[in-house]
Amino acid sequence: MHQSETINALRFLSIDAVQKANSGHPGMPMGMAEIATALWKNHLNHNPSNPHWFNRDRFVLSNGHGSMLLYSLLHLTGYNISIEDIKDFRQLKSKTPGHPEYDLDNGIETTTGPLGQGIANAVGMAISEKMLAAEFNINDLNPIDHYTYAFLGDGCLMEGISHEACSFAGTHELGKLICFYDQNGISIDGEIENWFTDDTVKRLDSYGWQTICVDGHDVNAIDEAIKASKEATNKPSMIFCKTTIGFGSPNKSGTSDVHGAPLGDEEISKTRETLGWQHEPFVIPDAVYEFWNATSVGKDKNNDWDKVMQSLKEADINKFNELTRRISGDLPENFSQKYQDFLTHCDDENSSMATRKASQVCLDFFVKEMPELVGGSADLTPSNNTFSKSSSTFTNENPTGNHINYGVREFGMSAIMNGMVLHGGIKPYGATFLVFTDYARNAVRLSALMGLPNIFVYTHDSIALGEDGPTHQPVEHLVTLRSTPNLNNWRPADLVETAVAWENAVSSKDSPTCLIFSRQNTSPITRNTDQIDSIKNGGYLIKDNPGAQMTLIASGSELQMMLDASEVLEESGVIVNVVSMPCLDIFLNTSQEYQSAIIKDDLPILVAELSHPNSWFKLLNKKDKVLGIETFGESAPANVLLDHFGFNVPNLVEMAKSLMNE
Q1: Is residue 383 part of a domain?
Q2: What is the mean pLDDT of the chain?
Q3: The dihedral formed by the CA atoms of 316, 320, 326 and 329, expressed in degrees to the nearest 10
Q4: Helices 335-349 and 355-369: crossing angle, nearest 10°?
Q5: pTM (2 d.p.)
Q6: Do both 75 and 218 map to the same domain?
Q7: Between the CA of residue 654 and those of 544, 575, 606, what are the distances in Å?
Q8: Number of domains comprising the chain
Q9: How many C-beta atoms surround the C-beta of residue 291 within 10 A?
Q10: Residue 332 burial by CB count (10 A; 0-12/13-18/19+): exposed, middle or buried?
Q11: What is the pLDDT of residues 457-510, one digit of tens each?
């Protein structure tokens, strides 16, 4: 069997699946087939029988529109993707959607599609590998020893996130990151020479990468480039592969016509003739399957690693137990009791402070107890308060450091963190100002889409940050985050709620968490044991009065203001309940019975939150009111701004009384 037969199997599985779906991107799989062959056949360590094998090489398809290339590889090498799944490309609930969607059971390491994020995920995976190797490899025992590979295209390198991620990777000398740039010169609009003329080799050289240029249709040349990349232990490598998009199509190769549309029956027939592929759609010869099948080799490599782990157990039982726990994602032994003791301490020591400071108090506990927690900040560490008493800075000289200085890279940081979570063994948290979620949001969205228990820390939560003005004062951001499915957004009122929010974040298994903290001081709230236990429900009664005539709801720093207003109202004969709502997302997922017990169905509601009001309407009736902000902020001291926007006790009292009169 000629090698071209095995390579063309990748091409025609992709061509025929796209044609059957009448939708998709055949050009990239046709152009990258030789690159995929060199990597997946000769270098990639993986086990189709155990896709969760922890020391597998990671493979990321950053140019995710070419998803059929990945599905074809997974099918041929022995993963649980059948030929029927290939035929089911882009259909509802299929294993082969239009862009790769995170599904480790079937060998898909991450969700890609928005260009550039895949390469950033790969950087995160390489960071996790470097950190864990430094921590757990001893002498000649290397339980953590694998590569991260990524395919990417012109679009990935046009996106600004590629600069953020690749610059960061070069600085941190991620020698086990090897990327393949499909340099075909074509994007949707046509030939990119009209809008993308960067000297990308010089660009990557300037980042500190090793750069290698090859013919992307020469398997042997690509193979040698991979070998050279592995030898550059202190530099990530970018292999520049000059290819022809839609390789083999006599009339469409090298054009944008083949990028994102089926070839059509006539052109497919001609392509079969040109490439000598004599098989009907979705028919693959047994010899091709035998060539590609990786199950036997994969099991052997997995078994070899199992022996390494057994040797580690014999050499250092503590390292073995800790690594095993980290791989499983379990919390440390006795963590629950230690957390309860810490929560009691927070209740006893509760005092006036900004919740960003309360967060740092919490991190002093959580980072000490959870060595998998790796913090970071986008150049705002002193403002975000992410550096704990147990933190040390991650550098090339200190690869076991558990705090990363990401620089001003909000988007890159967030996508890198996704990669760290996807790798496993590391639980990252990363911070910036809430207003700068605008830069990071697409990575946060993908975290929620994949169900990753990532932790995003956002401080300076409102106009109350003051003089920096409207460019730094978030208004619509909390609403935007709350509207994202599968994302829990906590805005705690004091140290106790902050501790519960952090515990919720570190315990999450399948939802990311945004922890939203204030620059302004908040007041310590007095609670009983039942109220403290109810914080985890996202909302709870902080004041529960028989015969209440109204429910007042607040989050964050506004809770004390609402409690003060309730005292004034009660002095004037208006009896109220007060609800603290640190996490509206979780509260709305509690039972209807619980929600009705906290927010009485027949009582008018007044909400106060230093944010756009649109989050709250699921809870409200037509006549209920929200004190929020629907304009941009202003530049002034915080106390002036609060009065300017009506966030004071007299205005809350007036609004409450107006509800009683309607």
Answers
A1: yes
A2: 97
A3: -150
A4: 150
A5: 0.98
A6: yes
A7: 21, 14, 11
A8: 3
A9: 18
A10: middle
A11: 999 999 999 999 999 999 999 999 999 999 999 999 999 999 999 999 999 999
**How many Cα atoms are found within 13 Å in the side-chain-facing hemisphere of 161?**
26
Q: Are strands 513-516 and 488-490 parallel, antiparallel or unpaired?
A: parallel
The band of 662, judged by pLDDT with boundaries at 50, 70 and 90, is low
Residue 293 resides in a domain = yes
Q: What percent of the chain is predicted at pLDDT more than 90?
A: 98
Residue-by-residue DSSP string for 119-167: HHHHHHHHHHHHHHHHHH-BTTB-SS---EEEEEEHHHHHSHHHHHHHH
Q: Domain boundary at 487, 522, 557, which? A: 522
State how far the Cα of 495 lies from the Cα of 363, in Å rounded to an integer.
12
Distance between CA atoms of residues 179 and 324, nearest Å: 29
Task: With respect to residue 36, please indicate whether it lies within any of the assigned structural domains.
Answer: yes
* Both tokens assigned to 396: 């090339």
pLDDT in tens, 566-577: 999 999 999 999
Are 463 and 491 within one domain? Answer: yes
Q: Are residues 514 and 547 in the same domain?
A: no
In the annotation, is 280 catalytic?
Answer: no
Catalytic residue chosen out of the listed positions 34, 372, 410, 497:
410
Contact 491, 478 (CB under 8 A): yes
Q: What pLDDT digit, counting tens, does each position of 511-556 carry? A: 999 999 999 999 999 999 999 999 999 999 999 999 999 999 999 9
> Which residue range is the domain that position 89 belongs to?
3-111+143-155+172-299
3-state SS, 611-644, equals CCHHHHCCCCCCCCEEECCCCCCCCCCHHHHHHH
Specify the amino acid at residue 41: K
- Is 315 part of any domain? no
**What CATH number has the domain bearing residue 86?**
3.40.50.970
pLDDT tens-digit readout, 203-219: 999 999 999 999 999 99
Same domain, residue pair 230 and 375: no
